[in-house]
Amino acid sequence: MTAVNDFGSEMRYLRQRKGLTIREVGRQVFISYSMISKYENGQLLPKSDIVQRLDDLLDGGGALVGRAREVALSAPGHPSPATGLPTTTRHFVGRNREIGELLKILTPSGALMSEPAGVLVLHGAPGIGKTALAAWVARLLLPRFEHGCQFVDLHGYTEGRAPADPGEVLDRLLRRLGERPEALPADVEELAALFRARTADRELLLILDNVRSTAQIQALLPDGAQCRTLVTSRNFLSALDGVPRLSLRPLEPDDADTLFRLVSSTSDTDGYETADIARIAEYCGRLPLAVRIAAVRCGPDSQLAVSRFAGRLADEYARFRELDDGERSVKAAFEESRKALDATERELFALLGLLPPEIMEVAAVAALSALDLPVAERGLDRLVDAGLLIRVDTEHYVFHDLIGAFARLAARDLAGPHSTAALRGLLDHTVRSCSRADSLVTPGRRRFPPPPTSGPEGQDFEGYDHARDWLAQELPALVALCRTAYEHGFDEYCWMMAFHLRGVFFLGKHWTEWEESHAWALAAARRSGNAVAQAATLNNLGLALVCQGQLDLASDRLTEAADIAGAAGDEDAQCTARSHHAWVMHLRGEHERALAEEAATLAYYQARGRERNAAIVLRDMAAIEIVIGRFDDALGHLTSALDVFRAIPSPLDTAMALNCLAEIHLQRADLVGAWHGFADAFDVASLGTIAFERARAQHGLGRTAAAHHDNTEARRLLKLALSGYTSLSAREEVDHVRADLAALAA
Predict the structure, then answer these.
(1) 233 and 307 share a domain?
(2) pLDDT digit string (tens) for 122-157?
(3) Residue 519 structural domain
(4) Backbone angles phi, psi at 496, to 5 degrees
């Protein structure tokens, strides 16, 4: 190594610590990036003025200037060569943030926690690139350590090989440090004491790679104040108290794309392959090991086209067969981690493969596994520690995409009765929880009792806010479970879950999820021959379509619901279909006919003491009456409805009614009454986190301000309404607000 090499290593170290790319450095010092690359690779030494500019830019503090003055390989402080360090990969990309963190912490003068001295754990999933990153950083750090680097693979998860024995590792390290083999003690504790003594005064970087457990490395940690130890492991190594840890995540999308192109020799100009490469990277979960294998499979010596290989990876269960190049296998890497679990943990891992690939809640996992909540949580945390699961927060976990696919493969090995019982326990818990939550979010709705159970009764909720927040947070997983229930033949759970999600769908205007879940629910109800379930599901589907303005399709659904309900003698479902159909008539301009239909449904609900249902009909009648100018009738109906909604209480219904009431004041040019009415609706909607009604109130306030000729305030409020409606994909309302804003600008 020459002084030029020393300079290049120092420059690369400072650049990556600063988090800059070669191109960014070149731009800031007005030099081509190819010249910067030559400086770092030891091909060229820059002139003194450029050295000073680089030192200033990279916060070198004179380090680059000093390196530029070194002229001999034997200069004081020159590092010893690395021992055992694997060859640096030709295609290392990304990880700038992680490199910067590691350089800051592992530099001899860096700030490290003192117990144990100078240790950092780099942990992450199998195949995520821990070893490659450690080797890369070690070479950057070599100039900073007088006595070089020692790298040891402890084979914690090497297929077909037992984890390295600490005594054998100590023996090897001491011989590397110059100890005579015949002078080495046999006892591990004595070897450890000798290693600590020999490293006490050294400036040494120790890399302990592929560690299985804390016990494997406890005796290998040096005590020297200027020693630094980088440990890589799939395991969190929680027994290493008080040490900093860095969790390695998948590559960024651009970095995964670059890695694939470099390894496969695919040109950046091959634009037609860009989408396929992005698909491959995502199928690989952006794990470096998987991306490298995929790239080799698509390399210049392969007859396999990128597009064709992307198609093969689309099949989740064939994916692991494809991510195997004969010498490296993603599945084998994952399997080593699974084998390291105990029997209970392996079973839990396989059970998690029964879940859809959304974020999973601890309570749901407990129901799935028939474990007590604390036991389930400990099991999940163990999987996190093993690098097989990611903790999202205290209540939620998620798989890395590729590990989730591996878990779903493992779930196939579960005995049929076992997986069926596990899913039944999960679905029973979930349906009961949804039913309880929905009864708080939309009280007074018709309820269907869940199937009898001997298991847990589902979650309890403290009130409206708790129930609403739970439904909103868990919604992606709950919708996915509707499909899981359908695919595994749990028809009753499928349609019931969709039914109990209707309230939160309406609250958040989740049209896509509403239609998808109810499509599975309708298929399940038809497959089981349950007429009541079919009518209820069709009514909910019809309502979703009405709200989106798809009136013809909505009418078809509601007519079918009424026919099925009539044949089954389900008067409630018939009345619901009639009420929803009345709204279709209203939107088609048939206001009088709509009012007549609503009056009939109102009589039905009042006769049966169904106060909330009757109040909803009164509110709908008032909305129609406002359109045709019957303000007194509308006011009377809304006043009666509001009394019921407030007594329940039902924040959604209250906010909707208050917005209608304020509209009457605005139509009558009572701007004070309109302003207070919309403000009341806004307050209720905000407290209840009812986004649509909040935006509706802001729209009303903006229109009221415009009528008062306060254009500045009107514009502010209308823009807020536009933002709210846009976030809900409420296209018709967005158009109305834009028209009002345009009128202000005219």
Answers:
(1) no
(2) 999 999 999 999 999 998 888 888 788 889 999 999
(3) 415-529
(4) -65, -40
